[in-house]
Q: What sequence folds into this?
DNA sequence: CAAACGATTTTCT
DNA sequence: GAAAATCGTTTGG
């Protein structure tokens, strides 16, 4: 079933980041449907989190969507090349978000291979936030899009990830955040092949 | 208006 | 293992 809007309003962004593991993202663009099961997430805990773009209650044209009510997408361009897909959570004016870092391909693998210019299915197809977004066809123009809509949606397929299967670790690429870079805000499914292998593991 | 810089990935050595 | 690719956002003049 599609996750209801209320799912995203939880004020505990860490709980949502854990809960999203095992859920399924389905995108439909240009009549092409692709889906992945989420295997890795990172929480960005709003104004008090130095690693968050919204740290210190900073509102700009780019971060504004993080201040929207939970249940929409926040997509932004990183290093001029990569589109990073986040799930906005919590009530309006509380800029919490969960970065989706990796997933396990389910449907539309042929479309994902085309988008990534790859010939065969390997973990690199959808492991890593930039790679995952590219495979699903998510780009910055989708920022602000509802996660209950026709183009992007997140579903509970009944897959249950037990706490024992969830590993908590430090976030990746946020060394600039000082002490907040050490927070265990990254979660992934233990033993899953489709988890990012970027430096920092 | 100009300049610096990333919540990364790929490729080359 | 190291470095390049590449551009919107943010910040400073």
A:
């Amino acid at each position: 079933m599609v996750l209801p809007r209320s799912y995203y309003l939880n004020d505990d962004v860490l709980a949502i980041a854990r809960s999203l593991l095992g859920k399924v993202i389905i995108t439909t663009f240009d009549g092409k449907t692709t889906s992945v099961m989420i295997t890795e997430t990172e929480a960005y805990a709003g104004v008090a989190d130095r690693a968050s773009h919204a740290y210190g209650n900073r509102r700009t044209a780019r971060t504004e969507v993080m201040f929207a009510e939970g249940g929409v997408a926040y997509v932004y361009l990183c290093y001029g090349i990569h589109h990073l897909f986040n799930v906005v959570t919590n009530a309006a004016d509380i800029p919490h978000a969960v970065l989706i870092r990796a997933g396990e391909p389910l449907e539309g693998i042929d479309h994902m291979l085309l988008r990534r210019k790859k010939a065969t299915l390997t973990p690199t197809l959808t492991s890593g936030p930039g790679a995952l977004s590219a495979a699903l066809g998510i780009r910055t123009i989708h920022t602000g899009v509802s996660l209950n809509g026709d183009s992007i949606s997140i579903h509970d397929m009944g897959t249950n990830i037990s706490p024992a299967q969830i590993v908590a670790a430090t976030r990746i690429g946020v060394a600039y955040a000082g002490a907040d870079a050490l927070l265990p805000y990254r979660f992934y499914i233990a033993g899953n092949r489709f988890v990012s292998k970027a430096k920092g593991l």
In short: DSSP finds three helices and eight strands in chain A. Residues 60-63, 76-77, 79-81, 140 of chain A lie near DNA strand C (CB under 10 Å from a C1'). The mean pLDDT of chain A is 96.
